[in-house]
Each structure stands twice: as structure tokens, then as C-alpha cells.
Amino acid sequence: MARLGSWIKAQAEGIYVEPADAWIDPSEPKSRAWVTHGHADHARGGHGAVLATPETLAIMATRYGPQSGQPIAYDETIRVGEVDVRFVPAGHVLGSAQIVMEHRGERIVVSGDYKRRPDPTCPCFVPVPCDVFVTEATFGLPVFRHPETGSEIDRLLHRLHSDPSRCVLVGAYALGKAQRIIMELRARGHHDPIYFHGAVERLNQLYQSFGIELGELRSATGATKAEMAGHIVIAPPSALNDRWSRRLPDPVTAMASGWMRIRQRARQRNIELPLIISDHADWDELTTTIRDLAPREVWITHGREEALKHWCMIHQIKACELNLVGYEDEDD
Ligand SMILES: [Zn+2]
Ligand SMILES: [Zn+2]
Fold it and tell me: Which of 215, 256, 205, 209 is nearest to 235 (CA)?
């Protein structure tokens, strides 16, 4: 009998699904690409045909221009070559999906990036039992345990209210994290206007066009220091320490990222208020998910593979690492 999952192949530039002649999140242009979500390390331009959720296709269009894309709704199954393929929610960012594939009685799930905790900007991760689970492992070490999101948001609001002459500048990945922070603030009763950096604007509009109500947003461009005092300003992490931030009223520099668990990283970036808010599964979410899916094999990619591989071994699940290149979630 053939090796489990022998019909999909990990290549340096992505996962190749042979019986469909398709690539998952390829890092180089391919004639047929299945894209899990819109982050730049997964969704690249220049492919022939793209299969993705409507939200992901829209994100790709804002980045790369019109795509020859075929939209696939969550839970819709289509047949490509000899593979039945279905996209199910991954809970990572708007439109993010796991890819569920069935071929000759075997089911393989590719997680893409995912998390298990609720996110007001996208549907929750749906666990799909499978034979092979191809999982990300961005935070695949037991030291990575993300706190409750609400308590991190409360720390942010507490800091904001403690000095109304200053603003709090929050560094957040422009796709997903920025909009999630806004929604989490709204859920904690913060309905003041939130200022944003120009790099976040198009994605805010895109989220709003998909029905995510972000409340009152204002461009930081052209706003005075006096207007922004006592307010939250959201910018991509790259803008935190550059000239741009000089226009702000004595900003408290914050950053929302799973990496903020590591003090050294916060210090390197001069972050005064590190907020541990991630769009990736933490260690407990990774291991809980493997328990939930009960796969016969786990293939680990995209992060720190060793510890998770060891955990699988202890729990008598066969595991291996896939060495894909080009996936970086530095600011996530
Ligand atoms: Zn991602
Ligand atoms: Zn990623």
C-alpha cells in the first residue's frame, strides 16, 4: 500500500497536489494556485488560475490588481482533477481558510495559518477530522501561551485613559490584526474615533465592504496633535519608529503581536506597551487541535517544528517536518 498522503508533495515553493495539478500557497507563480488567505507570504501575484474565498480574492485584487480567480465559498465542494476540495474557516483573518482535500478515500487538511480563539472579523476555525493534518507551527513552543485577548485590550484602554494628553500608537499588521484590534476595542465599549495610518486604509475599507462594522475611523494624515491626544492610532509595525510618528502627540508605543511574549523583541523595537495578541494558534491551541482532529499523521511547517513533533511522538502520532521556504510571520 502506498504511503499515506503520497499524492501531495512538499516542494520548496509550496505544497503540490498532484492529482489536481495544483499548488497550495505557492511562493512562485504557478498555473493553478489554491490560496488559504491574503497575507503576502501566502498569497502572491502572477498565478494563472487562483482558487480562494471571495474575501481572499478581494484582498489579492487590492494588492496585485485583478486576478483570474475562481471564488469558492466556505464548505462548498468542487472537484479538480481527481481531488474533491473544500475550503473551511481557519479563524485567522477575513476570508482565511483551511483546505480540505479528499482523494481515493484519504482526507488531508492543510491548516494554512489559523487560531482557535474567537475573532470578531472572521468565522471560527472549524475542526475537520482527517488522515493527515498539515499544520502551521508559528508559535510551536510551550513558552507561547497567549493571554485572553480581552485582558490585553483592557491594558491598552487603561494606558490610554491614564494620560489624555498622549495618544497610544498601536503597531498592528495591516491585514487582519489592525481590524481585529479595532473590533476588540469596540467590543470592550470603546466607541471613540480611532485614527489610522494610510497603509491601513484600503484594508479597513475592504473589511467594511464585507460587512465588518469598524465604527468611526479617521485618517491620521492631516489631523492635528491636539485632535489625536487621548486617542488610539493604528499603524503598521514598520511605521512605529519612523518619521511618520513624529506627527503624533507624545505617543505611547504599543504593538499587538504574539511575539510580544518575548521581552527582548519588545525592547528591540522600543515597545513601551507590548500587547500579546496573535492571529496564530498558541501552543495549547496547536496541541488541542491535533487532539480534536485525531489525524494518523501530522506534517508540520511554517515555524518551530521540533517541539510539536516531539509532542506528537509522545502522543503516538506520526509526525514529520516539511521544509517550505518563504513563509514569514514576523509581525503577526
Ligand atoms: Zn497569515
Ligand atoms: Zn503565514
Answer: 256
The reported pTM is: 0.95
303 CA to centre of ligand 2 in angstroms: 9
* pLDDT, position 241: 87
Task: Tell me, in angstroms, the distance from the centre of ligand 1 to residue 20's CA.
Answer: 24
Using DSSP bridges, classify how beta strands 252-256 and 132-137 pair: parallel, antiparallel or unpaired. unpaired
Nearest ligand, CA 137: 2
Give 168 Cα–ligand 2 centroid separation in angstroms. Answer: 27
Nearest-ligand number for the alpha carbon of 37: 1
Please give the backbone phi and psi of residue 157, each rounded to the nearest 5 degrees, phi first: -65, -35
Ligand closest to 115 (CA) is 1
Q: What is the pLDDT of residue 323?
A: 75
Query: 39-97: per-residue pLDDT in tens?
Result: 999 999 999 999 999 999 999 999 998 888 999 999 999 999 999 999 999 999 999 99
Gap from CA of 44 to ligand 1 centroid (Å): 12
Nearest to 96 by CA among 104, 108, 88: 88
Parallel, antiparallel, or unpaired: how do β-strands 168-171 and 232-235 relate? parallel
Q: Where are the alpha helices (DSSP H) in 11-106?
A: 54-64
